[in-house]
Design goal:
Helices cover about 15% and strands about 45% of the residues. It is mainly beta and about 140 residues long. Strands 1, 2, 3, 4, 5, 6, 7 and 8 form an eight-stranded antiparallel sheet that branches. The relative contact order is 0.27.
Length: about 140
């Protein structure tokens, strides 16, 4: 006899309602980009969701910025900080890179993650950039509710 798993599994291209709360929490995402030699590079990032699109922010010229501008395919995973057995993985493409409103975007993320009104780690001369990621494959795993 096979026991039924206490966990549920989801795969599709849409971020399901039962995992959208991960984007409301102070949950870091681990973003994987592709280096020029084809090897992966992973960085923890702040993240938010708008509709079904994932948004991250970085500074122009950083490694992940260069990678995403050159190679649009990315992946990220986000763990529930309250239950590490619950997570969401998103594989997709960077469909927009913009400096427009990027300073305001990093301030909104700072409010969420640090509970401050203004991003406190700005460097002199830094140019902020916002990236919109369109999910192509979404995998969720976690306890059944």
């Amino acid at each position: 006899m096979v026991e039924e798993s206490p966990f549920s599994y989801y795969q599709g291209s849409v971020i399901p309602t039962k995992y959208r709360d991960l984007f409301e929490k102070k949950a870091f995402a681990n973003l994987a980009t592709i280096m020029p030699d084809g090897t992966p590079q992973v960085t923890p990032v702040w993240v938010n969701l708008d509709g079904n699109d994932v948004y991250i922010n970085s500074a122009k010229g950083r490694l992940k910025d260069k990678n995403m501008r050159s190679r649009e395919k990315v992946a990220l995973s986000i763990l529930d900080p309250e239950n590490p057995y619950r997570y969401l993985q998103v594989r997709g493409r960077v469909v927009n890179v913009t400096e427009s409103d990027a300073d305001a975007h990093i301030d909104r993320l700072a409010k969420k993650y640090l509970e401050v009104d203004r991003y406190p780690f700005r460097q002199e001369g830094e140019v902020r950039v916002t990236y919109r990621i369109k999910p192509e494959t979404v995998v969720g795993f976690g306890p059944k509710k």
